Structures are given as C-alpha cells and as structure tokens.
Amino acid sequence: MIRHIVRRPWVDDSHLPASLPPLLKQIYARRGVTAGEVELSLSNLLRPETMKDMVKAAEIVADAVEQAHKILIMGDFDADGATSTSVCMLALRMMGVTTVDYLIPNRFDFGYGLSPQIVAVAESLQAQCLLTVDNGISSIDGVAAAKAAGMTVVVTDHHLAGAQLPKADAIVNPNQGDCPFASKAIAGVGVAFYLMTAVRAELRRRDWFARRGIAEPNLASLLDIVALGTVADVVSLDTNNRILVNAGLKRVRAGQCRPGITAILDVAKRSPARLVAADFGFAVGPRLNAAGRLDEMALGVETLLCDDIHRARRMASELDGLNAERRELETGMQQEALKHLSQLSLDAGDLPWGIALFQADWHQGVIGILASRIKDKYHRPVIVFAHGSDDEIKGSARSIKGLHMRDTLELINSRHPGMIIKFGGHAMAAGLTIAAAQYPAFSAAFDLAVREQLSEAELTGELLSDGELSLSDFNLDTAQMLRQAGPWGQSFEEPLFDGQFRLIQQRLVGEKHLKMMLETECGAYMVDAIAFNVDTQLWPDASVKHVKLVYKLDVNEYRGNQSLQLLVEQIEAC
Fold first, then answer.
1. Closest by alpha carbon to 480, among 530, 555, 560?
2. Percent helix, strand and coil across the chain, each rounded to 5?
3. Which of 94, 209, 239, 244 is most buried, taking the most CB atoms under 10 A from its CB?
4. Per the omega criterion (within 30 degrees of 0), is the bond before 48 cis?
5. At 347, phi and psi to the nearest 5?
6. Kindly report the CA angle at 129 between 144 and 148, in degrees rounded to 5?
7. Which of 536, 572, 234 is nearest to 371 (CA)?
8. How many CB atoms are located within 10 Å of the residue 279 CB?
9. CB 350: neighbour CB atoms within 10 A?
10. CA proximity to 62, closest of 204, 210, 219, 213
C-alpha cells in the first residue's frame, strides 16, 4: 500500500539551544522537545513517590525482606515481563535478599496474568509475598485467590485498569485513574525499576544495608535491561522513557551491559558499540520474545540473569534457534492469511475495516506478530485468533492511529455482554478470549465498531516526513548525528525524508530486498539505498528511471568502512 506523504510543518525552534545543528533543532522542535529535554539526564527522571501506592508497596516489600519471607515475582511471558522479572530479581539480590524467586506462567497452560491456577503453583512454592510485574491490574480472581491463601500481594503493572481493581495490598500502576505520575506511557519494566529504587530507599531508611554490612547497590547498572524492555514493548518514548532508554544504551555502548544482552547482540550480529534503540526493537527483543512465544520465557529470564558470558552465549544461541523457528511459523501463517484476505477482497469487493482472522492450526504464540504484519500491510486494525483451550479461541489485536483498541473491545463488550470472555491491553495492542462459536458474530461486531470510529481517509495511512534534505545535509556526518540524536521510537519517530532520485542501478538481494544506486536529481551526489521486503512482482523494474522515495539516513558499515546509505520506507516510480 502506497501511503500518503505528509510533510511536517516548520515550527518555531528558537527555544532550543543555538548549539544544535539547524536540521536537528527543527526535528526536535517538531517533536515537541523543550529546552530542558535536550539533555536526557537521569536527574530529570520523574520521582518514584509521585506514583500512587509506591511508598506503600516499597514498605510491604521491605517488610518481607526484613522478615525473610519468600518473595515470588510473577511476570508476564513477553519481553517486558521478562525484563521486569529480571530487574526485580537482580535488584533484590543486590540488596542482599536470598528468599526471592520468580514464576512466569506458560502461555499455553495458564494463559495471561495472575490466574487462580497459577496462584496454586505459587502456593506450592510457599510464596508469602507475591509481586506481579507487567500484569495483575485485571487479575481480580487471581489476587483474591492469593489473598485467600494468606499471601501479601503487590501488583505492579502499566496496562489500562478496568472498572474494577483487584484487592491487592498495594497497586502500583500509573494508568490507575487517580495516579498523578506524569508518564502514562511507562513500560512494565519501568514501573518495576521505580519500585526497586523505592525499596532501596526504604531499606536505607531502616539501616538495612549498614546493619547487614552490604554496600548499597547502584541500580543504574540495571538500566540496560530497562531500556531493552521499554523499547521491546513499543511504548511511547515520552521524555521519561527516553531518559531511561538513553541511559541503558549508553551502558551497552560503554561495554557495561549484562552478559545475556551482550550474547544476544552477538548472535544477532549487532555491535554493542554502535547500538541504537531500533536494535533492541528488531534484534534483541524478538529473540527474547521467542522463548515466551514457543517455549518457556524462563529461558529468556535466565539469559538476562546469567553472570557467565559462556553460559549466556549458549542460552542466546538457543533463543536464536527459537526465533528462527518463530520466523518460519510466521511466514507460513502470513501466506495463509494473505491468501484468505485476497480471496475475501475478490468476493466482497473490499476488505473489512476491522480485520479478524482465525485458523484452528495457527500457533498461539505467533498471532501477535501476524496481526502486526497484516496491520502494517493493509493499515487497518487487526485481530488474529488461534485455538486456545476447550471451545475457546484467543486473539491478539493491533491497532492504527485513531482507534484505541482496548476501548473498542470495551465498546463491543458493553453492546454484546458475554461475547468476550476476557480482554485487556492498551491503545495500540490488546488481547482477548472468546468462545469459538462467537467468532462470526464477533468479527461483524468488530468491523462495525471500527467503521464507527474511523474515516475512510484514515485507512490509507500516512508517512510523516521531515521534508527534503538539502545537499549540505546529505552526508555521512548528518547520518551519524541523527543516529546518535535519539533514542527514536514509538511516538518519537526517527526522521524520515522524501525526495526524487534517478535510479542508476537496481537488483534483488536476499530474494526480497531491493538494492539500489541512486543519484540526486541535480546530479551532485550518488548514494546506495536499500528497500526491504519489496513486492517482487513490481521490483526490480528496468523501465523505471526515476523514483520518489521516503527514507531514513543510515550509516552502513562494511569491513570497517562506513558509508552513507538510505533505508527506504516507500518507493514509487515517477
């Protein structure tokens, strides 16, 4: 799908430091950066105590530490859950806690969140203090079961809260309606990190470290894990999240990251010294997620906890193998989905505005990625279902700008009570369970709800461009400057530029990627470019001599040499 190119308007950037290069100054201003946000200093992080129940939760955990109670961390089975679990495990160990363990439910046996069934497992492990990370805000029955079993329960989460909250001893979630914490976009791992800093402060107040002869830990050493989880969960990179991610990236570039992250970067063929946020999102995160999608996320957690680089490399290799298996599964599922949608388009004349897909043999662990791929291709909200248990099917949803996915599921649930068994999530992603027999009715209800909230123009999609680069900015120095000016990510998009070029050479590499040699229209500059995953029925095309591109500036490194390269987001013949 060719998306409409919208150039960002010029905005006043006089409030930003004059020392910034003019191009970067305008890019920052367009993204709402203030003068105080240019330097991403840890000292500018929001204060932990501004999060509702943070002090109370820290006191509960500190009580459990002092009383040597068994603390069990209950995490989610994705990258955010794995990093959240790892941060809490490592932080508490650094504080001298020996009575701490973790439990992550297998998605195929227990499903998402703190269920009564997983509480029974926690009870068998003799848990006394149960700490949820990246889940729990919707676990009404699970928290009740834990409380009935005599456990103290602290919920930490970042997902949107429903009308009813679990009756935990403390709930730390900035997306509670009355929480004053300013960053509503913080990931689960960010909430977990904040709690650990508050627990450290509470233990310091109680002279725990002095009494035990323990050096007070530097929790900033965990920011590489925090950065990984934040980027992998695709939360909006507001200022607070950018500070956390930037600090974590700096640690990795300086060679100060966990052996497990180093090992995953190695199998992914990414250089720690040149790491950017996108490497966490497209190289490290998927390999970590593969454990939870196809096997047990405990493998991902153990990789992050590992202190031995040799053992970490063995586990990273196993994660890499799982990721390759995941890619193979995804490719087959995507081909089946596209075939179905192509036939649907022929039969109906148009696709639904809200796309729902289900095939009984699809792998439950991969449906989220498939939903994202279909959403990107057709620019429509998508929910993909796979067989769950008994007569139920589980769905993973992805949305586009303009449609809040969790609110849409809430709307359907209010109109059709009982149609959705359970659901949760946030604006751009959500999960749900329905009875298999309800799938046709749900598909129609979903399409109707989307049509009511979106306009036809919003289904075409758009690419926001920072305009056409001047020749003075068309160089390797500019590419390197922009690379280091991030972290770029969700809601703080890496700069895209657009322009017309003469197409000098074109060929396929890796079966589906278009490698090009381009010349600027004025003939002043020649540059390499690559467009990934092109439609091979359209490209290469020897008849095309001029192209209109939307692209990013990139630094290509080959055999120690660096050169400018364009990463093409969209290509049109012109």
1. 555
2. 45, 20, 35
3. 244
4. no
5. -75, -45
6. 25
7. 234
8. 20
9. 7
10. 204
pLDDT digits over 280-306, tens only?
A: 999 999 999 999 989 889 999 999 999
What is the reported pLDDT for 389? 81
Size of the chain in residues: 574
pLDDT in tens, 559-570: 888 999 999 999
Q: What is the DSSP string of 278-326?
A: HHIIIIIHHHHHHHHHHS-THHHHHHHH---HHHHHHHHHHHHHHHHHH
CA distance 242 to 236: 9
Do the Cβ atoms of 549 and 529 come closer than 8 Å?
A: yes
- Could you tell me the CA-to-CA distances from 556 to 271, 377, 477, 505, 560 in Å, in that order? 12, 27, 12, 18, 10
Looking at residue 349, what is its pLDDT?
Answer: 64
Residue 130 CA to residue 153 CA, distance in Å, equals: 5
Q: Are 266 and 310 in contact (CB under 8 A)?
A: no
- 549 touches 568 (CB < 8 A): yes
Token duo for residue 120: 């029974």
Alpha carbon distance 405, 399 (integer Å): 6
The token pair at 482 is: 């922009």
Q: Average pLDDT of 89-103? A: 97
For residue 50 the two structure tokens come to 């501004």
Q: Give me the residue label for tokens 């950065």.
A: 227
Distances (CA, A) of 555 to 483, 527, 571: 8, 12, 20
Whether a cis peptide bond, with omega within 30° of 0, leads into 417 is no
419 pLDDT above the threshold of 80: yes
How large is the average pLDDT for residues 487-492?
95
**In Å, what is the CA distance from 572 to each residue of 192, 212, 485, 502, 542?**
45, 66, 29, 12, 14
In one letter, which amino acid is 406? R
Handedness of CA 123, 127, 130, 131 (dihedral sign): negative
Query: 28 Cβ partners below 8 Å, 6+ apart?
Result: 13, 16, 20, 38, 485
Can you tell me the distance from the alpha carbon of 432 to that of 450, in angstroms, rounded to the nearest whole number?
Answer: 17
This prediction has a pTM of 0.93
Task: State how far the Cα of 204 lies from the Cα of 480, in Å rounded to an integer.
Answer: 43
Phi, psi of 127 (to 5 degrees): -65, 140
Tokens of 175: 């997306």
Give φ, ψ of 75 to 5 degrees: -105, 170
HEC profile of 74-97:
EECCCHHHHHHHHHHHHHHHHCCC
Whether the predicted pLDDT of 232 surpasses 70? yes
Distance CA 91, CA 108 (A): 29
Confidence label for 106 from pLDDT (cuts 50, 70 and 90): confident
Q: What is the pLDDT of residue 97?
A: 97
Taking alpha carbons only, the member of 520, 441, 426 closest to residue 475 is 520
Strand (E) or helix (H) holding 552? strand 546-558
| Cβ count near 44 (within 10 Å) | 12
Question: Which amino acid is it at 4?
Answer: H
Q: Which of 508, 507, 506, 503 is nearest to 526 (CA)?
A: 503
Lowest mean pLDDT among 96-110, 251-265, 318-332: 96-110
d(CA 281, CA 229): 9
Q: Are 90 and 122 in contact (CB under 8 A)?
A: no
